[in-house]
Amino acid sequence: MKKRIGWIVLALASVLAVGSCYGFLSVKKEKVAPVESKGSGIAFPEMMSQLSRGLTLWGNLNAAEKKQAVDAVIGLYKSRDNAAILNSGEFYSGKIDETLKGNPSVANMDIMTMMRVLAVMEYDFYNGENKDALAKKVLGEKGFSENKMRRQMGARFGAQPKL
């Protein structure tokens, strides 16, 4: 019986020793992040310069570049206009994708204007103004009415319809 317990303890100790060395000596392979689609290859300042003239470049950017561009715009609104946009860069890059897919003619719009319009539509542009008054000013009376209906339907059915 003691001989059997000795063998079990020795086997268990061997497994623990090998496992510890395996992790400690970094023999195990590190997980590799999935390869993201190739980006535009354009430097950030040049990318932002192009996006400030229009969104024609947007389709050539990968998800990380889109998020970086949107985050930069959110930061610019915060520092320049003392306005807050609370939704994430991923949220708005998705909204820009949806908007461009649904209405390709808005590709002429610059990223600052696009972000302001989308944030106002989502009632996520905090600059001290009344949300309804700001939406009427930015979207116009017709756009305000359509957006109000879109928001009500989204609240009623639990999902936001596509833009």
What does this structure look like?
The chain has a domain at 44-157. It is mainly alpha-helical and 163 residues long. The protein is extended and about 90 Å long. Helix content is 63%, strand content 2%. Mean pLDDT is 83; it is low at 27-36. The longest helix has 27 residues, at 131-157. The protein has a two-stranded antiparallel sheet with strand order 1-2.
Gist of the model:
This protein has 163 residues and is mainly alpha-helical. The chain has a domain at 44-157. It has six helices and two strands; from the N terminus they run αααβααβα.
How do the strands and helices of this protein lay out in sequence?
Blueprint: H1 2-24, H2 44-51, H3 63-81, E1 84-85, H4 89-102, H5 111-121, E2 125-126, H6 131-157
Helix pairs in contact: 3-4
Strand content: under 5%
Structural class: mainly alpha
Q: CA-to-CA gap between the ends?
A: 75 Å
Mean pLDDT: 83
What summary fits the major beta sheet?
2 strands, antiparallel
Number of strands: 2
With strands numbered from the N-terminus, the spatial order across the biggest sheet is 1-2
Keywords:
two-stranded antiparallel sheet; 163 residues; 2 strands; mainly alpha
